[in-house]
Amino acid sequence: MRKWLGPALSAPVTIWLLIAFAAPLVAVVFLSLHEYSDPFGPLIQTPSLQQFIDIASDSFYYRVVFETIWLSVAVTIASALLGYPVAYWLARMPGKYRALAFAIVLIPLLTNVVVRSLGIILLLSPEGLINIVTGWFGIPPVKTMLFNHGAVIVALTQVFMPFMVLALYDNLQNTSPRVHEAAQSLGASPAIRFLTVDLPLSLPGLKSGTIVVFLMSSTSYVSATMLGGKKVWTTGMLVLQEAMHNLNTSLAAALALVMTVTGLAFAVLATLALNRLMTWRYGGKSRPIALPRFVEPVVNFAGPIISWLLFAASVVLLLLPLGLVFVQSFNDVELATAAGFRGFTLRWYHEVFVSGYYTDSFIVSVKVALAALAVSLVIAVPAAFALARFPFRGRSALLAFWLLPLTLPHVALGVGMLKLLQIYVAVPAFIGLVAIHVVVILPFAITLLTASVIGLDEAQEEAAASLGANGWKRFLLVIVPGLLPGLFATSIVGFLLSFDEVTVTSFLTTARLTTLPVRLYAEASFELRPTAHALSSVLILLTIALLAVVGRFVRLDRLYAR
């Protein structure tokens, strides 16, 4: 009798994603098959491979694509090396302190990518913190740390490492303490135990983190633009350049598809490679790991040292750039990249709050975030009940579709939605922007709310029914109060995700519809004044305050539990 409930509750999310996610991707495919780019031409034309031929016949595009691939691989490796110690530390943290420790990961994760990139600039610039500290020891300043591949890798690692940490943490926290006790009883040291127990059992998390970090870093452009200084080019930068500046949406679409296919190919290869190391998960025989005797003393001696060095580097990379931005917001200098403190001033905050220059953009960001959040909650709550209580055939495939926006490039979504809004001019730009922001929020909202629905006590609903409460009364008086903590946490996270979104928003803003992060990105790209740091500090404090409020209702270490 209730078999129809699961598909019915799943329909709103599925329909929304078909319109605001699948349709833009289909538009990108059609655009890439245009022989010539015509910004105002019809979407469906006679198919042609001319755009792909142009890409394949130009060595510049080859260089950018391969440059993007190796940069993404480097970021993925760095994220794994730095993410493991943090994830292991979080998983072994006592429960009463774990939620607080999780803030080390969540605060950077939910802070605007432009803000974090500004912090990396303050760290690596010729007058940045590194050169200031080395100068104390008489070491000449290094003026070439910015605007190169190394700077971009550092910035992207800082941006995407939290995703790797969360993926690894999911597996490491589920390792039974009895497994560790068994290894310890057999004489395994903590370092050997990590190599022979924790590392193999965390491979599923490493696989997920590797795929997510590679796919997201391969299509990013904000950090690459700010830290690369036009000396480093990525595919995401080219897509933005062709679509927004050259109005060559067909070539931009073809480039987006090339990078999408490349990312999916990497995901398949990474999955196959790591699955070969996890035969025990697929019914195969697992082979015990035996280290040579001469290796054990080296591992026992060097393992803890390397682990603590990587952990310290991870925490510094996650938090120090945010602290530098906050300090710089009070610095009495005209050039925002100079990290040396010259004098205390509040004039940058005065410009932010009193001049009213950012007011319109702030209001636009709040309106978009609130509208996107409201829609996300309305359609994600039924989807969460469908997943948690009403199993139906095809549920796993549908869930995979719902989570696709986490992995497919947002630049492609931006190009596709831009074209659709040009065709359907009756649809206001605000509606298109909200539709895309809902797509960004939904994977997180569905994940968080599903966990909340699973945690509901069905016995209370049965008791209410036995007392004569109908379905609506049970929903309003029993289910909604039980869901309130999860709804509140989802609202805060969703609001921050929408408010801070830059990647896809840059394609859809207009002169009257510019969000605050996009304006901040534009200013940081062309005229970097300390007002950007004052505004960034406000955003950092807003993120910390909202997370603190969430922590009063939901443990922070459970926000991203899957």
TrEMBL record:
InterPro entries in the record: MetI-like, MetI-like_sf
Assigned GO CC terms: plasma membrane
Domain ABC transmembrane type-1: 65-270, 362-550
Alphabetized UniProt keyword annotations: Cell membrane, Membrane, Transmembrane, Transmembrane helix, Transport
Transmembrane segments: 12-33, 69-90, 102-125, 145-169, 249-277, 298-320, 362-387, 399-418, 430-454, 475-499, 534-554
Highest taxon of the lineage: Bacteria
Subcellular location: Cell membrane
GO BP field: transmembrane transport
Pfam families: BPD_transp_1
Membrane topology: Multi-pass membrane protein
Family recorded in the similarity comment: Belongs to the binding-protein-dependent transport system permease family. CysTW subfamily.
Protein name as annotated: ABC transporter permease subunit
Organism: Martelella lutilitoris
